[in-house]
Amino acid sequence: MKHTADQIRRTIEETIARLPLEGEPPLLYQPIRYAMSQGGKRLRPTLLILAAEMYGAEAQDAIWPAIGLEVFHNFTLVHDDIMDQSPIRRGVETVYKKWTSSVAILSGDTMFALAYDLLIRSESSRIREILHLFNRTAIEVCEGQQLDMDFESQEVVSIDEYMRMIRLKTAVLLAASLKTGALIADVERNEADRIYDFGICIGLAFQLMDDLLDVYSDEALFGKKTGNDIVTNKKTFLYLKAFELANARQKQELEQAFSTSSPVEKVTTVRALYDELGVRDATLNEIQRLHQISESFFDNLPAGISQSDELHKVTLGLVERKF
Amino acid sequence: MKHTADQIRRTIEETIARLPLEGEPPLLYQPIRYAMSQGGKRLRPTLLILAAEMYGAEAQDAIWPAIGLEVFHNFTLVHDDIMDQSPIRRGVETVYKKWTSSVAILSGDTMFALAYDLLIRSESSRIREILHLFNRTAIEVCEGQQLDMDFESQEVVSIDEYMRMIRLKTAVLLAASLKTGALIADVERNEADRIYDFGICIGLAFQLMDDLLDVYSDEALFGKKTGNDIVTNKKTFLYLKAFELANARQKQELEQAFSTSSPVEKVTTVRALYDELGVRDATLNEIQRLHQISESFFDNLPAGISQSDELHKVTLGLVERKF
Predict the structure, then answer these.
(1) How confident is the model at residue B219 (pLDDT cuts 50, 70, 90)?
(2) pLDDT (tens digit, 9 = 90+) per residue, B72-110?
């Protein structure tokens, strides 16, 4: 029986709530329970199980690797928040802020080990492929985070470099989630690669949409303060596109706008320049382009795969205009 | 063909030197190369390969898991040094000091993923047992480090609590190294557990010897400043034993000695009190007791295992008096 994304998300939440995280010492396990109970979209495990079911596997054969990838994802957030000195995530204090950096480092490390231990609960005959994919992905996510930090002090960042960074930092884990689901369903290598590539496209579009929403979304809808990327001079797709599209005078105006001290004025001024330069449409065009490429995945599913609607719906939701 | 420990160590160094660590971005991979090239005893991979060969496996079937465990061990050092704010290790700057905490966190995370990727190169039919053992061990090492940090602010620490901490922080990884070698050689479960328990005994004795040498070794021989544990009021076996053996007056003297501000005077005074209390002999007795238990391992090897000399020699070296 195939499940809806909502049913899958409920199962994921229930399974996470039942994880044996009551261990000693408390300062190691409390932060793990805290980090895992903050909710979020549970996107990666949902994609993994949707892919597994689409290709004919049972959800129960996919649940542990799915939870493993979610634990891994949350581990990266715990460590990223130390490095980025982010005090708030999902509306509550981050682990390093609530406890200490040392606690966040070590709880994170434990979550990484725990992720592997959940992953190897899989009884898949393709377990070596699954583990190798996961290792490569984990390394790539670290590379992406390092590139992201490098960009902060890097004078010039090209759009190509930026796309490479978000591919590593964001897209590969979505792609690996989908491919792991496919491997659990024991699909052919070619099909596993196809869903991986689909995941990369969707992941890139998802990150660009995230960049766009930070500037243009309705605050209430998006759930965090709009304009944070502008306030912190973050080199997002919109920032880089703006400088790419600007002439000499506009470049100067952008530089001036980005050195405004008042946050509200800064966001208003930068947004006006983005509008003048057509940055919003340029970003939407790129999202649309990636989305169109990704659609070919559904057009070429192997014979016998009919129930792809649920996966289609969830991935569409990631790249849709929400404003 | 069986190899000597020296031959194995040379192979390990050569293999580490050839690891593909030239990746991008440089700020992620330079620190990994740096951390892996600082030498050290390469104890864990040496034990793994010695155990594998003793039980009849080929060294080449054990080399990658061995390197994986060494990479894991070095990852824990990179992260521990951030948490403990240790500026120097093996005579050179630690990763977080040479670069930044963020670089050390992320390079460490990458080393953890790399350790897994080396581990799964093993073609052993017992790979699931090997991975499960590794996951459990990694989690336990984190628990041990958290306990160690907890002890800093904990008024009272019992010797039992201390032994539990060093079991987790130090002994389980030595034990897991030996057991992984045994699993690669496909030994029976009972024998794999026997060498694990042997590793725990040796690991505990090794850590107690480390505590002892910090107070009593010839500085040149031991290679780091003697008395560092005393200067930093670290709750080692000797510290806890001293308070256990002291009467009310001596407890006061110890407390006074540990609040001395001059490091040289502090070490001299504390050492004199340790001598008065017989702490040195009490520690040596405990090491001797653990060593004797561990010896029974060699007395009960399965029929057909003859060449255990090299493993015996290496483990003896860990618990011998070096002063």
Answers:
(1) low
(2) 999 999 999 999 999 999 999 999 999 999 999 999 999
pLDDT averaged over every residue in chain B: 95
Task: For residue B146, give the nearest of A27, A82, A146 by CB distance.
Answer: A27
Cβ contact, residue pair B114, A135, below 8 Å: yes
Q: Which of B106, B124, B150, B157 to mutate to test the interface with A (most CBs of A within 10 A)?
A: B106
CA-closest candidate to residue A179, choices A197, A156, A204: A197
Domain residue ranges in chain A: 205-323
Query: What confidence score (pLDDT) does residue A198 get?
Result: 98
Q: Do A102 and B120 touch (CB under 8 A)?
A: no
**Which tens digit of pLDDT belongs to each residue from B30-44?**
999 999 999 889 999
Question: Is the CB of residue B46 less than 8 Å from the CB of residue B8?
Answer: yes
Predicted local confidence at residue A224, as pLDDT: 57
Could you tell me where the DSSP H helices lie in chain A? Answer: 5-17, 26-36, 43-54, 63-83, 95-98, 101-119, 127-153, 159-166, 172-184, 189-216, 219-222, 228-231, 237-245, 248-258, 263-277, 279-299, 309-319
Containing B89, the helix (H) or strand (E) segment is strand B88-89
**Residues 12-31, chain A: which have Cβ within 8 Å of B?**
23-25, 27-28
HSE-CB of A320 using CA atoms within 13 angstroms: 8
Q: Is the CB of residue A226 less than 8 Å away from at least one CB of chain B?
A: no
**Per-residue pLDDT tens for A203-254?**
999 999 999 999 998 764 555 567 889 999 999 999 999 999 999 999 999 9
B105 → closest Cβ in A105, A116, A131: A105
Testing the interface with B: which of A28, A76, A81, A167 to mutate, by most B Cβ within 10 A? Answer: A28
What local confidence, expressed as pLDDT, does residue A220 receive? 46
Residue contact B106–A79, C-beta within 8 A: yes
A104's tokens: 């966040």
The answer to whether A150 contacts chain B (CB < 8 Å) is yes
Per-residue pLDDT reduced to its tens digit, A88-111:
999 999 999 999 999 999 999 999
Chain B residue numbers touching A109 (CB-CB < 8 A): 79, 108-109, 112, 138, 142
Q: Three-state DSSP class for A75?
A: helix
Digit-coded pLDDT (tens) for A272-319: 999 999 999 999 999 999 999 999 999 999 998 878 999 999 999 999
Which ranges in B217-261 belong to alpha helices (H)?
219-222, 228-231, 237-245, 248-258
Give first-to-last CA distance, chain B, whole Å.
35
pTM of the model: 0.96
What is the rounded CA–CA span in Å between residue B231 and residue B227?
6
Residue type, B26: P
How far is A103 from A30, CA to CA, in rounded Å? 10
Q: What is the pLDDT at residue A219?
A: 67
Does A110 contact chain B (CB < 8 Å)? yes
User: What is the identity of the amino acid at B292?
Assistant: Q
Q: Does B241 touch chain A (CB under 8 A)?
A: no
A148 to chain B, closest Cα gap in Å: 10
**ipTM value of the model?**
0.95
Q: Which of A23, A101, A146 sits opposite B25 (nearest CB)?
A: A146
Does the beta-carbon distance from A135 to B113 stay under 8 Å?
yes
Residues of B in contact with A25 (CB under 8 A): 143, 146-147, 150
Cβ proximity of A236 and A211 under 8 Å: yes
